[in-house]
Prior knowledge:
There is one protein chain. This protein has helices at 7-16, 36-42, 67-80, 94-98, 109-122, 144-154, 177-185, 199-209, 218-222, 226-230, 239-250, 261-273, 280-287, 293-306; strands spanning 22-28, 58-63, 85-89, 130-135, 158-162, 190-193. The chain is α/β, with parallel strands linked by helices and 308 residues long. The model has no long low-confidence stretch (mean pLDDT 94).
Amino acid sequence: MEGVIDHLMRELLTEINxxxxxxxxxxxxxxxxxxxxxxxxxxxxxxxxGLTKSGCxxxxxxxxxxxxxxxxxxxxxxxxxxPGIDLNFGCPxxxxxxxxxxxxxxxxxxxxxxxxxxVKGALEGTGQPLSAKIRLGFDDTSLxxxxxxAVKAAEPEMLTVHARTKRQGYKPPAYWEFIKEIRRxxxxxxxxxxxxxxxxxxxxxxxxxxxxxxxxxxGALATPNLANVALGIEQAITWHQTCELxxxxxxxxxxNQKPFYYSSRLKQWYRYLKLQFNEADxxxxxxxxxxxxDDILSVIEAHLTTAL
Length: 308
Protein backbone atom coordinates (compact mmCIF):
# COMPACT_ATOMS: atom_id res chain seq x y z
CA MET A 1 0.00 0.00 0.00
CA GLU A 2 3.04 2.25 0.07
CA GLY A 3 2.43 5.25 -2.14
CA VAL A 4 -1.28 4.87 -2.72
CA ILE A 5 -2.15 5.73 0.91
CA ASP A 6 -0.40 9.07 0.72
CA HIS A 7 -1.61 12.38 2.11
CA LEU A 8 -4.20 13.01 -0.63
CA MET A 9 -5.75 9.59 -0.15
CA ARG A 10 -5.72 10.11 3.61
CA GLU A 11 -7.44 13.46 3.09
CA LEU A 12 -10.09 11.86 0.90
CA LEU A 13 -10.81 8.84 3.10
CA THR A 14 -10.90 10.77 6.37
CA GLU A 15 -13.21 13.33 4.78
CA ILE A 16 -15.83 10.70 3.94
CA ASN A 17 -15.36 8.39 6.95
CA UNK A 18 -15.31 8.76 10.73
CA UNK A 19 -11.80 7.52 11.38
CA UNK A 20 -10.33 7.96 14.85
CA UNK A 21 -6.70 7.88 13.70
CA UNK A 22 -4.52 7.47 10.62
CA UNK A 23 -1.02 6.00 10.59
CA UNK A 24 1.13 7.60 7.89
CA UNK A 25 3.47 5.74 5.56
CA UNK A 26 6.69 4.93 7.36
CA UNK A 27 9.70 7.17 7.74
CA UNK A 28 12.82 5.00 7.37
CA UNK A 29 15.38 5.47 10.15
CA UNK A 30 18.90 4.10 9.72
CA UNK A 31 21.84 5.69 11.52
CA UNK A 32 21.14 9.40 11.62
CA UNK A 33 18.50 12.06 12.14
CA UNK A 34 16.04 12.17 9.27
CA UNK A 35 15.88 15.68 7.76
CA UNK A 36 12.76 17.65 8.60
CA UNK A 37 11.86 18.00 4.93
CA UNK A 38 11.63 14.19 4.69
CA UNK A 39 9.09 14.11 7.50
CA UNK A 40 7.08 16.86 5.83
CA UNK A 41 7.25 15.09 2.46
CA UNK A 42 5.80 11.85 3.83
CA UNK A 43 3.47 13.49 6.36
CA UNK A 44 2.54 16.96 5.10
CA UNK A 45 -0.25 16.98 7.67
CA UNK A 46 2.49 18.07 10.09
CA UNK A 47 1.99 21.55 8.61
CA UNK A 48 -1.55 21.35 10.05
CA UNK A 49 -0.75 20.19 13.61
CA GLY A 50 -0.72 16.57 12.46
CA LEU A 51 -4.34 16.65 11.26
CA THR A 52 -6.03 16.03 7.93
CA LYS A 53 -8.21 18.86 6.67
CA SER A 54 -11.23 17.15 8.21
CA GLY A 55 -9.47 16.99 11.59
CA CYS A 56 -8.37 13.35 11.78
CA UNK A 57 -5.02 12.85 13.58
CA UNK A 58 -2.21 11.43 11.44
CA UNK A 59 0.55 9.74 13.42
CA UNK A 60 4.12 9.53 12.13
CA UNK A 61 5.28 5.94 11.69
CA UNK A 62 8.95 5.09 12.16
CA UNK A 63 10.66 2.01 10.77
CA UNK A 64 14.16 1.11 11.89
CA UNK A 65 16.25 -1.08 14.14
CA UNK A 66 18.60 1.20 16.07
CA UNK A 67 17.03 2.11 19.44
CA UNK A 68 18.94 5.37 19.89
CA UNK A 69 18.29 6.70 16.39
CA UNK A 70 14.65 5.67 16.58
CA UNK A 71 14.36 7.66 19.82
CA UNK A 72 16.10 10.70 18.30
CA UNK A 73 13.77 10.68 15.31
CA UNK A 74 10.70 10.16 17.47
CA UNK A 75 11.58 13.43 19.19
CA UNK A 76 11.89 15.17 15.83
CA UNK A 77 8.46 13.88 14.80
CA UNK A 78 7.03 15.05 18.11
CA UNK A 79 8.60 18.49 17.72
CA UNK A 80 7.14 18.79 14.21
CA UNK A 81 3.67 18.13 15.58
CA UNK A 82 2.93 14.42 15.21
CA PRO A 83 0.07 13.36 17.53
CA GLY A 84 1.99 10.37 18.84
CA ILE A 85 4.49 7.96 17.32
CA ASP A 86 3.89 4.56 15.73
CA LEU A 87 6.61 1.90 15.38
CA ASN A 88 6.57 -0.51 12.44
CA PHE A 89 7.47 -4.14 13.23
CA GLY A 90 5.16 -5.56 10.59
CA CYS A 91 6.30 -4.53 7.11
CA PRO A 92 6.92 -7.74 5.09
CA UNK A 93 8.71 -6.10 2.14
CA UNK A 94 11.93 -7.92 1.20
CA UNK A 95 13.92 -4.71 0.71
CA UNK A 96 12.94 -3.54 4.21
CA UNK A 97 13.56 -6.88 5.91
CA UNK A 98 16.90 -7.32 4.16
CA UNK A 99 18.13 -4.17 5.90
CA UNK A 100 16.81 -5.34 9.30
CA UNK A 101 13.67 -3.25 9.35
CA UNK A 102 9.97 -3.95 9.73
CA UNK A 103 8.98 -7.56 10.36
CA UNK A 104 12.61 -8.72 10.56
CA UNK A 105 12.72 -7.44 14.15
CA UNK A 106 10.14 -10.08 15.08
CA UNK A 107 13.09 -12.51 15.03
CA UNK A 108 14.72 -10.51 17.85
CA UNK A 109 12.20 -9.71 20.63
CA UNK A 110 14.95 -8.25 22.82
CA UNK A 111 15.82 -5.69 20.15
CA UNK A 112 12.12 -4.92 19.76
CA UNK A 113 11.98 -4.26 23.49
CA UNK A 114 15.01 -1.94 23.27
CA UNK A 115 13.49 0.06 20.41
CA UNK A 116 10.07 0.46 22.04
CA UNK A 117 11.41 1.25 25.50
CA UNK A 118 14.01 3.74 24.21
CA VAL A 119 11.38 5.61 22.18
CA LYS A 120 8.98 5.48 25.14
CA GLY A 121 11.68 6.99 27.35
CA ALA A 122 12.41 9.73 24.82
CA LEU A 123 8.73 10.70 24.74
CA GLU A 124 8.40 10.76 28.51
CA GLY A 125 6.94 14.04 29.63
CA THR A 126 5.67 15.00 26.17
CA GLY A 127 2.21 13.56 26.70
CA GLN A 128 2.44 11.88 23.31
CA PRO A 129 1.24 8.26 23.00
CA LEU A 130 3.40 5.51 21.54
CA SER A 131 1.91 2.69 19.49
CA ALA A 132 3.44 -0.27 17.69
CA LYS A 133 2.35 -2.70 15.00
CA ILE A 134 3.45 -6.31 14.77
CA ARG A 135 2.70 -9.54 12.94
CA LEU A 136 2.37 -12.93 14.62
CA GLY A 137 5.99 -13.74 13.87
CA PHE A 138 8.46 -13.92 11.02
CA ASP A 139 8.58 -17.49 9.69
CA ASP A 140 6.09 -18.87 12.22
CA THR A 141 4.51 -18.06 15.59
CA SER A 142 7.15 -19.78 17.73
CA LEU A 143 8.43 -16.46 19.14
CA UNK A 144 5.02 -14.87 19.66
CA UNK A 145 5.06 -15.27 23.45
CA UNK A 146 8.48 -13.60 23.62
CA UNK A 147 7.33 -10.83 21.30
CA UNK A 148 4.32 -10.11 23.50
CA UNK A 149 6.48 -10.24 26.63
CA ALA A 150 8.77 -7.64 25.03
CA VAL A 151 5.80 -5.40 24.22
CA LYS A 152 4.40 -5.80 27.72
CA ALA A 153 7.74 -4.88 29.33
CA ALA A 154 8.30 -1.86 27.05
CA GLU A 155 4.80 -0.47 27.72
CA PRO A 156 3.59 1.28 24.56
CA GLU A 157 0.11 2.78 24.85
CA MET A 158 -1.38 0.66 22.03
CA LEU A 159 -0.57 -2.41 19.94
CA THR A 160 -1.89 -3.27 16.48
CA VAL A 161 -1.62 -6.89 15.39
CA HIS A 162 -1.69 -7.97 11.75
CA ALA A 163 -2.88 -11.52 12.29
CA ARG A 164 -0.42 -13.29 9.99
CA THR A 165 3.30 -13.99 9.98
CA LYS A 166 5.70 -12.28 7.63
CA ARG A 167 6.02 -15.53 5.63
CA GLN A 168 2.25 -15.68 5.22
CA GLY A 169 2.34 -12.18 3.75
CA TYR A 170 -1.15 -11.19 2.64
CA LYS A 171 -2.42 -14.67 1.80
CA PRO A 172 -5.84 -15.43 3.29
CA PRO A 173 -6.88 -16.21 5.91
CA ALA A 174 -5.91 -13.98 8.81
CA TYR A 175 -5.63 -15.76 12.16
CA TRP A 176 -7.59 -13.34 14.35
CA GLU A 177 -7.95 -15.87 17.18
CA PHE A 178 -4.31 -15.22 18.11
CA ILE A 179 -5.26 -11.64 18.97
CA LYS A 180 -7.69 -12.90 21.60
CA GLU A 181 -4.81 -14.62 23.39
CA ILE A 182 -2.61 -11.53 23.02
CA ARG A 183 -5.31 -9.38 24.62
CA ARG A 184 -5.36 -11.65 27.67
CA UNK A 185 -1.68 -10.95 28.26
CA UNK A 186 -1.74 -7.17 27.79
CA UNK A 187 -3.53 -4.39 29.62
CA UNK A 188 -3.19 -1.89 26.74
CA UNK A 189 -5.64 -1.53 23.83
CA UNK A 190 -5.03 -4.15 21.12
CA UNK A 191 -6.18 -3.36 17.57
CA UNK A 192 -6.99 -6.13 15.08
CA UNK A 193 -5.76 -5.91 11.48
CA UNK A 194 -5.53 -8.12 8.43
CA UNK A 195 -7.93 -9.45 5.76
CA UNK A 196 -10.78 -7.08 6.66
CA UNK A 197 -12.78 -6.36 3.51
CA UNK A 198 -16.47 -6.40 4.46
CA UNK A 199 -18.82 -5.84 7.38
CA UNK A 200 -18.97 -9.63 7.76
CA UNK A 201 -15.18 -9.72 8.07
CA UNK A 202 -15.31 -6.98 10.70
CA UNK A 203 -17.92 -8.82 12.76
CA UNK A 204 -16.03 -12.12 12.50
CA UNK A 205 -12.72 -10.46 13.32
CA UNK A 206 -14.09 -8.69 16.40
CA UNK A 207 -15.64 -11.93 17.66
CA UNK A 208 -12.55 -14.07 17.12
CA UNK A 209 -10.11 -11.42 18.35
CA UNK A 210 -12.38 -10.32 21.21
CA UNK A 211 -11.80 -6.65 20.43
CA UNK A 212 -13.86 -3.77 19.07
CA UNK A 213 -10.75 -1.96 17.81
CA UNK A 214 -10.08 -2.40 14.09
CA UNK A 215 -7.42 -1.07 11.73
CA UNK A 216 -8.38 -0.99 8.05
CA UNK A 217 -5.79 -1.28 5.30
CA UNK A 218 -6.40 -2.62 1.79
CA GLY A 219 -10.12 -2.95 2.48
CA ALA A 220 -10.39 0.82 2.90
CA LEU A 221 -9.23 1.20 -0.70
CA ALA A 222 -11.45 -1.54 -2.10
CA THR A 223 -14.57 -0.10 -0.41
CA PRO A 224 -13.71 3.57 0.22
CA ASN A 225 -16.42 4.14 2.83
CA LEU A 226 -15.79 0.87 4.68
CA ALA A 227 -15.18 2.62 8.01
CA ASN A 228 -18.64 4.19 7.96
CA VAL A 229 -20.15 0.88 6.81
CA ALA A 230 -18.50 -0.77 9.80
CA LEU A 231 -19.98 1.88 12.09
CA GLY A 232 -23.43 1.13 10.69
CA ILE A 233 -24.08 4.63 9.39
CA GLU A 234 -23.84 3.95 5.62
CA GLN A 235 -24.31 1.27 3.01
CA ALA A 236 -21.32 0.22 0.95
CA ILE A 237 -20.51 2.74 -1.75
CA THR A 238 -21.80 2.07 -5.31
CA TRP A 239 -19.68 2.10 -8.46
CA HIS A 240 -21.21 5.42 -9.56
CA GLN A 241 -20.39 6.95 -6.18
CA THR A 242 -16.88 5.53 -6.44
CA CYS A 243 -16.38 7.21 -9.81
CA GLU A 244 -17.55 10.48 -8.26
CA LEU A 245 -15.06 9.92 -5.48
CA UNK A 246 -12.21 9.28 -7.92
CA UNK A 247 -13.07 12.53 -9.68
CA UNK A 248 -13.15 14.37 -6.35
CA UNK A 249 -9.74 12.92 -5.46
CA UNK A 250 -8.21 14.05 -8.75
CA UNK A 251 -9.64 17.55 -8.32
CA UNK A 252 -7.82 17.82 -4.99
CA UNK A 253 -4.73 18.57 -7.08
CA UNK A 254 -2.97 21.67 -5.79
CA UNK A 255 -0.62 21.82 -8.76
CA ASN A 256 2.25 20.41 -6.70
CA GLN A 257 2.04 16.84 -7.94
CA LYS A 258 4.61 15.44 -10.34
CA PRO A 259 3.63 14.57 -13.93
CA PHE A 260 1.83 11.23 -14.17
CA TYR A 261 1.04 11.29 -10.42
CA TYR A 262 -2.67 10.59 -10.83
CA SER A 263 -2.24 8.00 -13.57
CA SER A 264 0.20 5.95 -11.48
CA ARG A 265 -1.76 6.32 -8.25
CA LEU A 266 -5.08 5.45 -9.89
CA LYS A 267 -3.54 2.33 -11.38
CA GLN A 268 -2.38 1.36 -7.89
CA TRP A 269 -5.83 2.04 -6.49
CA TYR A 270 -7.38 -0.10 -9.24
CA ARG A 271 -5.70 -3.20 -7.77
CA TYR A 272 -8.05 -2.90 -4.80
CA LEU A 273 -11.15 -1.47 -6.48
CA LYS A 274 -11.32 -4.46 -8.82
CA LEU A 275 -11.75 -6.74 -5.80
CA GLN A 276 -15.14 -5.15 -5.08
CA PHE A 277 -16.29 -3.74 -8.42
CA ASN A 278 -16.48 -5.65 -11.71
CA GLU A 279 -16.76 -2.28 -13.47
CA ALA A 280 -13.21 -1.39 -12.40
CA ASP A 281 -11.77 -3.52 -15.20
CA UNK A 282 -13.45 -1.37 -17.86
CA UNK A 283 -12.20 1.80 -16.20
CA UNK A 284 -8.65 0.49 -16.02
CA UNK A 285 -8.78 -0.56 -19.67
CA UNK A 286 -9.72 3.01 -20.62
CA UNK A 287 -7.07 4.77 -18.51
CA UNK A 288 -4.11 2.36 -18.55
CA UNK A 289 -2.32 4.16 -21.38
CA UNK A 290 -3.23 7.68 -20.22
CA UNK A 291 -0.84 10.00 -18.39
CA UNK A 292 -2.43 13.44 -18.34
CA UNK A 293 -4.85 14.37 -15.58
CA ASP A 294 -7.37 16.02 -17.91
CA ASP A 295 -7.52 12.93 -20.12
CA ILE A 296 -8.19 10.75 -17.08
CA LEU A 297 -10.91 13.13 -15.90
CA SER A 298 -12.63 12.83 -19.27
CA VAL A 299 -12.70 9.05 -18.92
CA ILE A 300 -14.05 9.33 -15.38
CA GLU A 301 -16.83 11.63 -16.64
CA ALA A 302 -17.74 9.06 -19.28
CA HIS A 303 -17.91 6.31 -16.68
CA LEU A 304 -20.07 8.50 -14.47
CA THR A 305 -22.55 8.72 -17.32
CA THR A 306 -22.62 4.99 -17.96
CA ALA A 307 -22.70 4.13 -14.25
CA LEU A 308 -26.03 5.88 -13.70
